Amino acid sequence: MAKTILILDDSAPIRQVVGIALRGAGYEVVEAKDGIDGIDKLNGQKLNLIITDVNMPRMDGITFVKEVKKMPRYKFTPIIILTTESQDNKKQEGRAAGAKAWVVKPFQPPQLLDAVAKLILP
């Protein structure tokens, strides 16, 4: 059965590029345009991984990660932050919130797929 990944990014082209890379690697993809939309899309479904941007309207990625980690069903779901932010203090904030990996845009799809493969358990 295919593993399901939720992608959150306010940029439709980024969601598209990430989605194409993930689908090409055999993953199911659910897309959300910001943190609030992401929380709505969780709705109890089984997710193997979440990829989120940091800078989004309505709810940013770090706040989203904190909210997800409060939910018993998603407490252990690995989260990758995919963002233009590369400052160490932002990375520490992401790690403290519960993110497992940090990928800086622009990214190469193989780099992202490598991070995904390391975090999704077989």
UniProtKB/TrEMBL annotation:
The keyword Phosphoprotein applies. Keywords: Phosphoprotein. It comes from the Bacteria. GO terms for biological process: phosphorelay signal transduction system. Gene3D superfamilies: 3.40.50.2300. The keyword Disulfide bond does not apply. Residues 4-120 form the Response regulatory domain. The modification 4-aspartylphosphate is found at residue 53. PANTHER family: CHEMOTAXIS TWO-COMPONENT RESPONSE REGULATOR (PTHR44591:SF25), STRESS RESPONSE REGULATOR PROTEIN 1 (PTHR44591). This is Chemotaxis protein CheY. It comes from Photobacterium profundum (strain SS9).
